[in-house]
Specification:
The complex is a heterodimer.
Chain A: E1 4-17, H1 21-30, E2 33-47, E3 52-56, H2 63-70, E4 78-83, H3 93-96, E5 99-103, H4 115-125, H5 130-144, H6 159-171, E6 177-181, H7 189-206, E7 209-213, H8 217-223, E8 226-231, E9 234-240, H9 241-248, E10 251-258, E11 272-277, E12 280-286, H10 290-300, E13 303-309, H11 313-323
Helix pairs in contact in A: 4-6, 5-6
Chain B: H1 2-20, H2 23-49, H3 59-93, H4 96-100, H5 106-112, H6 120-136, H7 143-169, H8 171-174, H9 178-188, H10 200-209, H11 212-223, H12 229-254
The chains are: A alpha/beta, B mainly alpha.
Chain lengths: 330, 262
């Protein structure tokens, strides 16, 4: 029985366009021209309890809009949606008590007070008796390696400490479904790794379902056996991370070590040059031209070593995010 | 219900703790509080210096109206402004998300999340003024009229709250509505004086469109023991209606909430 089920989910926003300059501003003020933008178009997927799913896509692909529909913050314009047996946008108490949303860019902790004060507010709001709340705080604080940070004003915490405290606040009510929108945003590498480890442990320990968006591929590769890739509002891929790399990359990476360094234009016509350092060069060559290109390379240049591999998934997704379009792969 | 009471206690506890976090700011707040109070007293003294009736109201009776106004102004500084002005910020910055994700009524959260001590002295002075001026105007301060006045002041507070909340809720569409709430505030200062002191056109406006009459004149008449019963009933009905409308309006507005992008 799936815990998250979306079918034909869509959302259309009405946005106002404004031309630059004074004239544009006046026109914008007097007669606002609006148009409809389809942010999410007929997305369908389902998630089983306990799964950790990565939600990928370039900026503006519709990830956050989908998350907001899943958490009941906004009404879908069409389609069916069920999370933990509830219709999210009704925001029934029983629904809100079994989900949580962590947003890397927004914070719920009270800025001027220690995290413990915010946690006490949350305990009251979620109707958790103090004894139970204290026990959970202790457990989670231990997992997150939070100690005296909990009694220091939030404004005096580092970004990493703050994010960990945010996670604690978001998990105090032991939600079954975790929606995480860029939870490691802006953290340094160590803090990212710690948050990642915590999420893996938490999923193991509680069996909670996790849907995670992140721009850091390390988060996705470390946590998510399954990924959903959304592009221009439509679901482009749903499956394993390995399968995604095959679908995204119709080419292979060829690493050459040459006897003598050569200029970049020596490799024109073989494929795209990914890097060129001294006598080492990496090329991306379309799969169907691989044999022919490698033969030509071996014939035309003095090659000391040659290695053919699949490009790493991080690079593929990174490329997708940078270029903001699947065209990058065609 | 237990959840709401416990939440409210924690809300106000953290609000007080937050204010005490900055000692200097609290000091400034106390100074501002004194300033507020001085302003009210100054207006009051202007009143004293004249010496004629106002719209058929004797001096002391008019002071009761000013007292009711001061009470509501104090309530505004204590609860309404600190909470309701935040709604706009929540919408602008997208932090309304966190409120909507909590298993507690979002209107309750937005209306009572914080409390500021700034208006408390005004509340006390307003109440004192009403109690002091009413006997001067010949009222006997019978327990019944005191209770009635209290109920009608509560109704007035609800009406004021509901109006303000609906205006703040429109920020879901317009995002910035600071100006609208300021206009409301300015219009409501009309409640300093008895409604009958205004020309007939304004009198109608202040009764039917902006319920200024219900805010101050009606509670004042109650404590003076000369309230016509139908005004009392109307006041409570208007308050109940305003509250219901504010709830329905909030629910309606949320359908249009798009949440600021993250």
């Amino acid at each position: 029985m799936a815990i998250v089920r979306a079918s034909g989910l869509s959302k259309t926003y009405r946005v106002a366009d404004k031309q630059p300059g004074l004239r544009g501003t006046v026109r914008h003020f007097l007669r606002r021209r609006t148009r409809d933008v389809a942010a999410v178009k007929g997305v369908s997927f389902s998630i089983e309890p306990g799964e950790v799913v990565g939600f990928l896509g370039p900026n503006g692909a519709g990830k956050t809009t989908t998350l907001k529909m899943l958490t009941g913050l906004i009404h879908p314009s069409g389609g069916q949606l069920e999370v933990a047996g509830h219709t999210p946008w009704r925001r029934q108490r029983t629904f809100l008590e079994c989900i949580t949303l962590v947003m890397g860019q927004k914070q719920q902790l009270i800025w001027d007070l220690p995290p413990l004060d915010s946690l006490r507010v949350n305990a009251a709001v979620y109707g958790i008796p103090d004894a139970i709340a204290n026990r959970r705080i202790q457990e989670l604080a231990e997992m997150l390696e939070l100690g005296e940070e909990l009694t220091r004003p939030v404004r005096k915490l580092s970004l990493g400490q703050r994010m960990k405290a945010e996670l604690l606040a978001a998990l105090l009510h032991e939600p079954q479904v975790l929606f995480l929108d860029e939870p490691t945003l802006g953290l340094d590498v160590n803090a990212q790794a710690r948050v990642r480890q915590f999420l893996a442990d938490y999923n193991q320990r509680t069996g909670a379902t996790v849907l995670l968006t992140s721009h850091y591929m390390a988060d996705i590769t470390a946590l998510c056996p399954r990924v959903l890739l959304i592009h221009e509002g439509a679901l482009f891929y749903d499956g394993s991370l390995v399968g995604l790399s095959e679908q995204l990359a119709p080419w292979r990476q060829v690493r050459l070590e040459l006897a003598h360094p050569l200029p970049a234009d020596a490799f024109a016509g073989y494929g795209e040059i990914e890097s060129l350092e001294g006598s080492e060069v990496r090329l991306l060559i379309p799969r169907e031209q691989l044999t022919a290109s490698v033969n030509r390379l071996l014939a035309n240049h003095e090659v000391v070593d040659l290695e053919v591999s699949d490009p790493p998934i991080e690079e593929l997704i990174g490329r997708l995010f940078r270029q903001g379009s699947l065209e990058a792969f065609r | 219900m237990g959840r709401y009471l416990r939440s409210l206690r924690r809300f106000w506890g953290t609000a007080a703790a937050g204010q005490m976090e900055y000692q200097l700011n609290l000091l400034i707040e106390l100074v501002a509080m004194a300033g507020n109070l001085a302003g009210s007293l100054f207006v009051l003294s202007l009143f004293f210096r004249q010496g004629e009736g106002l719209g058929g109201w004797s001096w002391p009776a008019a002071q009761v109206v000013l007292g009711a106004y001061t009470v509501l102004d104090g309530l505004t500084s204590t609860l309404l402004r600190p909470n309701l002005s935040r709604i706009v910020t929540h919408v602008q910055e997208g932090t309304l998300d966190f409120v909507l994700l909590k298993p507690i009524d979002s209107q309750f959260w937005l209306s009572l999340r914080t409390v500021s001590p700034a208006g408390l002295p005004e509340l006390a002075v307003g109440a004192g003024l009403m109690l002091w001026a009413a006997p001067q105007a010949g009222a006997s301060l019978a327990p019944a009229s005191l209770v009635l006045a209290l109920v009608l002041l509560a109704a007035a507070a609800v009406i004021l709250y509901a109006l303000w909340f609906v205006l703040a809720a429109t920020s879901i569409w317009f995002v910035k509505t600071w100006n609208a709430t300021e206009v409301l505030r300015a219009a409501l200062t009309a409640g300093r004086y008895p409604v009958s002191a205004y020309p007939p056109a304004l009198r109608t406006l202040f009764t039917l469109v902006l319920p200024v009459a219900f805010l101050t004149t009606v509670p004042a008449e109650a404590i003076l023991g000369r309230l016509h019963w139908h005004w009392g009933v109307a006041s409570v009905l208007v308050a109940a209606l305003a509250l219901v409308v504010s709830r329905l309006f909030w629910r309606f507005a949320l359908r249009f909430y798009t949440s600021a992008s993250s």
